[in-house]
Amino acid sequence: MHSVINDIVNSTEKRILQIDNGDTLKRDPEKRDIVNAIRTKRSLNKVAVISEVKPASPGKKLRDISPEDAKEIASEMERAGAIAISVLTEPEFFHGSLDNLKAVRSNVSIPVLRKDFIVDKIQFEETQSDLILLIAGILGTKLEEMVQLAISKGFEPLVEVHNKEELEEALKTKARVIGINNRDLSTLEIDLDTTLELVPRIKEFDNENGTEHIIISESGMHTTDDIRKVIEAGADAVLVGTSIIKSGKIYTKTKELVDALDE
Ligand SMILES: O=C(O)c1ccccc1NCC(=O)[C@H](O)[C@H](O)COP(=O)(O)O
Hints:
Number of domains: 1
Largest sheet: 8 strands, parallel, barrel
CATH architecture: Alpha-Beta Barrel
Order of helices and strands: HHEEEHEHEEHHEHEHEHEHH
Helix content: 40-55%
Structural class: alpha/beta
CATH superfamily: Aldolase class I
Strand order of the largest sheet: 1-4-5-6-7-8-9-10
Shape: globular
Bound molecules: the ligand O=C(O)c1ccccc1NCC(=O)[C@H](O)[C@H](O)COP(=O)(O)O
Strand content: 15-25%
């Protein structure tokens, strides 16, 4: 694991000590269904884009985003046809917040993903979202248990993998949604071919087991060519942060990616 990831996980572990066990968030009982949203979008030959409210990457500030800004940004993403909104909530390295998550979910009607470094079930109690990210490379042997717990709490777990070993672990779980992260968390290098390498194994598993996983290609997509590359390889959806936020034109850039198959 890259030292930045170790730092992020260490900082998260310290932060969760502050979560008050008795202070359980009252969650909206309605879960917005991303699986249907993705299938509907794809049936219209549009790209299912999960658009990310991302203030920063480690060491790289993109834009200050307050809860009010987050609401406005997410509304523009929804208007432009995004099927879901991802909200980074990690405060130290990504400048995200749970307040941004809450603000976004109350202001859009599409599914919302909490994008963070979940290391302990206590984090479920502070989360107002429909989906929650579980990173196989971080959770290791705890992955299956965390997937079960997330489902029992009413979340749709999005299990993120980057290599074949992590993918095999993800396929052993009950998760319906698998994210292939094109960013290697050991080196932070991005390679869209990661999606091309891992999709066939998911398809093979589904054929053998009568399952139908939803595949999300995550990170490093900037152009419509990038989007077409991963969709043509078999991804059902894409998760895009930096290129949308950096464009400064949230509506226009999101729509360009949603319409990438029109060209
Ligand atoms: O964004 C980073 O640089 C990063 C570094 C280390 C761990 C995670 C990181 N990103 C978290 C994400 O999951 C991305 O924000 C998301 O996949 C969107 O990626 P991008 O479109 O490349 O901003």
